[in-house]
Amino acid sequence: MSEADAAAALLWLSLTAYAVLAGADFGGGVWDIFASGPRRRAQRQAVARAMGPVWEANHVWLIFMITGLFTVFPIAFGSLGLALYVPMTIALIGIVLRGAAFAFRAHGRDAVGPLSPWGIVFGGSSVVAPFFLGTAAAAVASGAIRITGGSVVSGFGAGWSTPFAVVVGLLAVALCAYLAAAYLMVETEDDPALQSDFRRRAVIASAVSGVLALLGLWLAYTQTPRVWSDLTGNGLVLLLLALINGPIALWGVWRLHPRVTRIAVAAQVTLVLWAWAVGQWPYLVPPDLTISDAAAPAATVGAWLAVIAVGMLLVIPSLGVLFRVFKARNPAA
C-alpha cells in the first residue's frame, strides 16, 4: 500500500466515523420532528440528552476529512468542490441551521417541549443535510463527474439529480434515522415505555432503509452500470456482508437487544460505505481520477501522515474522555 493509499484509507475512516456518529445526530433530528403520542415530550428530551454533550464533537470527523482532502488530494478537492457545489452548499447550510436551531432551542425558554419553530428548523435541516450528502455521494460513485486535464467538464447537475441519486439521498436519511433509533434504544433502557417507542421507530427505519437499498441496487443495475460493476466486483464481499447483516440488525430490534442492535446498525452503515470504497478502488473520482493521480507530492503526503499519527494520539483519547464523562449530561435540562 502506497502512502497515497494509506491517506485515502484514513480519510475514508473519518467519513465512516462521521456517518456512524453524526449520522445518528441527524437521525435524532428526524425523530425529534416526528415525535408523537403521549410521550412525545419525553422522546424529544431523550434525543436532547443523547445529542447534547457530543453533537459538536462529532463534526470533527467532517472537518478532518475536508482538510485532509484539500491537503493530500488537492485536485480531487477542487474538482468535487466545483462539480458538487450545489448539493454540498445546501448540505452545509443544513448543517449550520441544524446546529443553530439545536442550540437556540436548548437554551430557550421552552427548551425541548412542544414542537416549536426552532424545532421545525432542527428537524427539517436534519433531513436536508444527509439527503444532499447522499446525492453527492451518488454522483461520485456513478462516475458522472468527468475530469479532463485537471478541469471538470461535466455540468453542475451531473449525477446528483438522477433517480439513483435521489434514492441514495433518501437511503442516507433512512439510515441516519435507523442509527438514531438504535442508539436511543440503549439510551432509554431505564424507561421501557420510551424504549418501546424508539423500538417501533427502529423497525420502521429498518424497513424503509431495506426497501430503499434494494431499489438503489435495482437502479444501479438498470441505470448506473458503473456502480453495479463496482459493487459486484471488488465490493462484492462487503456488499454480501451488508445484506447478511441487515436481518441481524432487525433481529436485534425485534428481540429487544439494544446493544446488539446498535453495533449491527453501525456495522451496516460501515459495510455500505466500504463496499463503495473498495468497489471503486483505485479510483478516487471515477472514471478519470485515481488515488495516485490525485495525490499531492510524496513529501506532502508523508508529512501529513506523520502529523496525523501524532495528532490522533491526542484526539482519540480526548474524544473518548468526552463521550465517557459528558455523554449523559443534557444542557437543555
Low-confidence stretches: 328-333
Structural class: mainly alpha
Q: Percent of residues in beta strands?
A: under 5%
Radius of gyration: 20 Å
Biggest sheet: strands side by side, in what order? 1-2
Task: Name the helix and strand elements from N-terminus to C-terminus, one letter apiece.
Answer: HHHHHHHEEHHHHHEEHH
The overall pLDDT average reads: 85
Largest sheet: 2 strands, antiparallel
Structure description:
With 333 residues, the protein is mainly α. The protein has one domain (3-326). The protein has helices at 3-33, 40-51, 55-58, 60-72, 74-83, 85-106, 117-141, 163-187, 192-222, 225-231, 236-254, 258-280, 291-294, 298-326, and strands at residues 147-148, 151-152, 283-285, 289-290. The strands form 2 sheets. It has a two-stranded antiparallel sheet with strand order 1-2. It has a two-stranded antiparallel ribbon with strand order 3-4. The termini are far apart.
